[in-house]
Amino acid sequence: MYVDSHCHINFPELATRMPEIMQKMADNGVTHALCVSVDLPDFPQVLALAEQYPHIYASVGVHPDYEDTPEPSAEQLVELAQHPRIIAIGETGLDYFRLKGDLEWQRERFRQHIRASRLSRKPLIIHTRAAAEDTIRILREEGAGTADGGVAGVMHCFTESLEVALAAIEMGFYISFSGILTFKSAKDLQAVAKALPLDRILIETDSPYLAPMPHRGKMNEPGFVRHVGEFLADLKGVSVTEVQETTTKNFFKLFQFAH
To answer: How deeply is 111 buried, as exposed, middle or buried, from its count of CB atoms within 10 A (0-12, 13-18, 19+)?
Structure first.
């Protein structure tokens, strides 16, 4: 069985096809999925899916790309995270690729999420793009690592260097690979995945984006995480069963609950 550790099935292009999405998950052996929040106005939709489907979990947070949206406070995030279906804080982090100029507001938003994670004891879902150095620095400054009193989390849709991955793992984070891993152009990322220990790896779709081969260019969905798992098994020279069992175990160990 597989777990899709990061998806956005509340987005309109997927939410209108929910029975089909759920059936395709079952057909592909995907037993659970984490639906990830990107802003507070849409958070009720994320939570509603987790309340409706026992194998769907949810997070609460505000994505760094969302400029014109209500800013969350650590206290507000902690309060929302008390719901039993909320298993993570995020997604949060830094993105210097899509947005330019003075991004201090983005860094402050990130710090609020890290503080909420420490207070709620729920792991962080980290988005970082063209901002790895500041991402690692702020995580350390705010004590996100397990050795500093935090609960760490996952570096989702990872596309950074092996050095960044190892720095995150040293703090207690897991590394999650998306469909990008299967792209022919992703040789550097494939080398990173091959070098990392399987017991620190998660897999995801980030659907509806980044569909893996052989579905590249189509709308992504949680059922397609199987292709990421199969590619990872081949890349690392291990069985598909080992990837299934280990990445699923990693998911439930990170988010600290039984299934």
So the answer is: middle
